[in-house]
Amino acid sequence: MFRFESLEVWKRSIEITDKMFDLADRLEELRRFRFAEQLRGAALSITNNISEGSESSSRREFRQFLNHSHRSISETANILIVCHRRHYIRDVEREHHLQQLEEISKMVTGFLKSLR
Question: Residue 72 — pLDDT band, cuts 50, 70, 90?
Fold first, then answer.
């Protein structure tokens, strides 16, 4: 088992990443390929940075990766908002995903504080 797999923030992040990949698949069915590509990249970056940072040799370096992850959460949220504005997703789906992203954002912030 890799270290990151035991981190609650990674566990929650991988769940939303799976959901974003499912949404990206639906966007491709609508021929919204750029949206799908951007969404996959942003969501994957959330978990990639947590996992990569967990192998850092210092707390400072781990914080940098968590900051990147935090920014990817915002990027993912922005893509969801644009998708909603373009009527690619419904209100309830947007709200559900944004709430999950906000919770993960708070977890990342708390984790950052614990590494100071």
Answer: very high
- Three-state DSSP state, 59: helix
Q: What three-state secondary structure class fits 38? A: helix
Does this model's pTM top 0.85? My answer is yes
Q: Distance (Å, rounded) from C-alpha 76 to C-alpha 46?
A: 9
- Domain positions in the chain: 3-114
Query: Which H or E element spans position 5?
Result: none
- For the chain, the average pLDDT equals 97
- CATH 3.40.30.10, applies to 3-114: no
pLDDT of residue 16: 97
* pLDDT exceeds 90 at position 68: yes
Is 63 within 8 Å of 47 (Cβ atoms)?
Answer: no
- pLDDT in the model for residue 1: 87
- Measure the CA–CA gap between 39 and 34, rounded to whole angstroms: 8
H helices of the chain, in order, are 8-29, 33-54, 59-85, 91-114
